[in-house]
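Handout, section B. The chain below has 261 residues.
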Amino acid sequence: EFNIVLNASTILESDIERLLEFRKPFILFSGGKDSLATLSYLKDRAKRVNIDLTALFVDTTVGLPENMEYVKKVCGYLGVNLKVVRPKIDYFTLAKKWGIPSFGYRWCCRELKIKPIGEYLDSIKEPKVVFDGIRAAESNQRKKYIPLWYHPTFKCLSVSPIFYWSDYKVTSFINSNGIPKTLLHSLGTSTECWCGAYKTESDFRKLYELNRNMFYKLSEIEEENKNRYTFIYKNGQKIPLKDLERQILKVKNKDEDGENE
């Protein structure tokens, strides 16, 4: 059919279109800006070759329901098929068993994302290809990645078509394509997974205002976890979410008292 060099440092637009033609395409779509730009970009390419796309969204069981609704809205707007996959065991059950994920103990990505995607793709017997929104500009670690490789769990090619896009190009592309916007993008953090591994104090402050129910569920897990890990570790100190809530309420009460004077 065609030849593409595995582990290539670049991938041509013509190669992407041929992959769309000769492999059943799946796009990992989290609802974030990068995956949104990837989905819209591939939709444009798919039109040229008259191919339908399927967006794969992982319900990590610890994401915000507002994000899933946004994902459904975008797929409807773009006319893209949507497949939602979920882990067999939810995050809260696993966190009680294994402890809260941390930088050095990131069981979350494997169990909540990679496994359910791999299990679903195993059911697709025809040749397939998976596209994602990974970009080199995201981090120094991501710069070491390559935009085209064979994924051993997905058992197919994994392609990052916007790998070399800048932050500015992603934002400009989204704004110029009339795609529905969401307040969630302004939070500056991923909202499809609140496992905790990469969240900051600022993120949890935003979560407290946005979805109090999720904040309390995570606080409960934090109190029960066996590795005594807290989601927030700052200046060498653990800050439990209950303490963070006290700080937030203290400031709010002070502000309200000031306004009443």
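Note. The chain is about 45% helix and 15% strand. Compare this with the example in section A.
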